[in-house]
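Page 37, continued from 36.
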């Protein structure tokens, strides 16, 4: 779980520090999806009020709780209409990966702030907050990059699949969340995420 040892007060303090990190991670993730779609010609997210940095527009309570406790979770998906794209298969990949890219960018900026302005991170609370921001965003990016429908990483798989296998993909997408929940319970998700998180952290740090 996200919280290790220590007393109740320390855990509550870490929980409070985690809340803004969770809200930013899921909000910016979905904003990046919508922004990329808009730049590629799809106005759906903007028209539905989802091209926003207001967390209430993107919050999925269960997904946010999972992110808070386990460092992987999800938000309410931004509506995308591939019919607006000039190259739907390519553009869907770009839009899908934009969310993870936004989280990795956030983690990178946080890491650079520590390097450039170390005086701002002298206190324990400041150090914990910036670390949580980094790991929360890297965790959300790594989770969504897993090639399991309906996660963002599966869109790369979608582009690579021959048309004759599309029905299998759509079936997996329909029941994908059940598969993800089962993999969570079995402890498979953290095992799959760990090498990807290490890779991202090595790059940004």
């Amino acid at each position: 779980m996200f919280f290790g040892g220590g007393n109740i007060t320390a855990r509550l303090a870490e929980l409070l520090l985690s809340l803004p990190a969770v809200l930013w991670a899921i909000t910016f993730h979905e904003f990046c999806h919508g922004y990329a779609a808009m730049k590629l010609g799809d106005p759906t997210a903007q028209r539905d009020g989802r091209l926003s940095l207001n967390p209430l527009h993107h919050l999925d309570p269960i997904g946010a709780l999972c992110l808070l406790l386990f460092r992987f979770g999800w938000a309410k998906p931004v509506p995308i209409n591939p019919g607006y794209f000039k190259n739907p298969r390519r553009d869907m990949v770009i839009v899908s990966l934009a969310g993870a890219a936004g989280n990795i960018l956030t983690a990178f900026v946080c890491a650079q702030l520590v390097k450039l302005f170390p005086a701002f991170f002298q206190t324990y609370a400041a150090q914990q907050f910036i670390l949580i921001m980094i790991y929360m965003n890297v965790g959300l990016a790594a989770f969504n990059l897993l090639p399991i429908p309906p996660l963002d990483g599966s869109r790369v798989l979608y582009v690579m699949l021959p048309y004759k296998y599309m029905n299998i993909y759509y079936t997996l997408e329909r029941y994908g969340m059940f598969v993800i929940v089962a993999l969570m319970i079995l402890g498979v998700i953290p095992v799959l995420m760990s090498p990807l998180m290490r890779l991202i952290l090595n790059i940004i740090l």
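The chain is about 70% helix and 0% strand. Flag for discussion at group meeting. The CA atoms of residues 32 and 67 lie 18 Å apart.
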